[in-house]
């Protein structure tokens, strides 16, 4: 008989793989449809799925700071990140956007330290700068050529800016959720509001709505359902799985995402991209190690 802890851990790891493939899959669907409507369709089915699995949260019992503050941060992040993917003009750009987004793990640690939720060693500073250096290498392998760096960023400044702001917003959500949630989970509600906001953006931007054919519609339902399941399963895995292993695995999402995106999108990045991706992951791991050890010693 399988150990319940092992089962919960495997479920959590499957959620990480779903999130790692999210960027590439969303990009393919938005290429077949109009950008925002494609995302809104996917998240509509995600919202339905997560509401069916988790039920509608009892919002009257929840702290207002969590409900309004963390809710605004969650919705803002989802819209910023998804719109940055939708607005990317090439498969190369979407992979760069994914790496910008994956600055959130080291940023979460830095913000948790500032919020006095974590103890730390000074090596956390080294880890953070290694992640930033890795990201710069992803954007432009010729890192000392500032003119080329500006050239790359100026090709799609809105999408890159959205991704960067999202990478800052998500750590804020994580930090404030830990502080104000008091054990409550309003993610199904936040997810529903994010979906409604995407449809509002679609309509006010006068974007054309393209009805997907049967095969694409089936893919949208499947991907939307998997995203909803992954969010629901993640909460379960954090409660009953191997938390150390799950947290460690999240720091490898940049590498997982790059490999899956390469296979799904059929795009082969340059060597500098892979070096930068590994540095983003290495920096995040150093940040994680710099806080985990001190917390463990003092507990």
Automatic annotation (TrEMBL):
Keywords: Cell membrane, Membrane, Transmembrane, Transmembrane helix. The keyword Amino-acid biosynthesis does not apply. Residues 159-286 form the EamA domain. The chain crosses the membrane at residues 9-30, 36-54, 66-88, 94-115, 122-139, 159-176, 188-204, 216-234, 246-267, 273-292. It comes from the Bacteria. PANTHER family: INNER MEMBRANE TRANSPORTER (PTHR32322), S-ADENOSYLMETHIONINE_S-ADENOSYLHOMOCYSTEINE TRANSPORTER (PTHR32322:SF18). This is Aromatic amino acid exporter YddG. It comes from Acinetobacter stercoris.
């Amino acid at each position: 008989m399988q150990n319940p802890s092992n089962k919960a851990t495997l479920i959590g790891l499957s959620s990480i793989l779903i999130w790692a493939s999210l960027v590439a899959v969303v990009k393919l669907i938005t290429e077949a449809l109009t950008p925002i409507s494609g995302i809104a369709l996917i998240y509509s089915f995600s919202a339905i799925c997560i509401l069916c699995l988790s039920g509608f949260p009892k919002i009257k019992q929840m702290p207002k700071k969590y409900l309004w503050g963390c809710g605004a941060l969650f919705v803002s992040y989802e819209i910023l990140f998804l719109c940055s993917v939708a607005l990317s003009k090439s498969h190369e750009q979407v992979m760069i956007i994914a790496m910008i987004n994956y600055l959130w793990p080291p940023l979460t640690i830095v913000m948790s330290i500032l919020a006095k939720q974590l103890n730390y060693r000074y090596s956390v500073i080294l880890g953070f700068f290694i992640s930033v250096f890795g990201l710069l290498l992803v954007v432009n392998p010729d890192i000392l050529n500032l003119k080329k760096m500006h050239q790359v960023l100026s090709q799609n400044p809105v999408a890159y800016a959205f991704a960067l702001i999202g990478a800052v917003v998500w750590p804020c959500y994580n930090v404030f959720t830990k502080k104000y949630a008091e054990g409550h989970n309003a993610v199904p509600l936040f997810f529903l509001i994010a979906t409604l906001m995407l449809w509002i953006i679609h309509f006010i931007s006068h974007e054309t709505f393209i009805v997907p054919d049967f095969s694409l519609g089936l893919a949208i339902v499947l991907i939307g359902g998997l995203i909803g399941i992954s969010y629901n399963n993640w909460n379960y895995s954090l409660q009953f799985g191997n938390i150390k292993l799950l947290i460690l695995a999240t720091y490898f999402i940049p590498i997982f995402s790059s490999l899956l995106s390469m296979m799904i999108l059929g795009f082969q990045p340059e060597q500098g991209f892979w070096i930068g991706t590994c540095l983003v992951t290495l920096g995040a791991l150093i940040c994680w190690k710099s806080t985990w050890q001190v917390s463990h010693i003092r507990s």
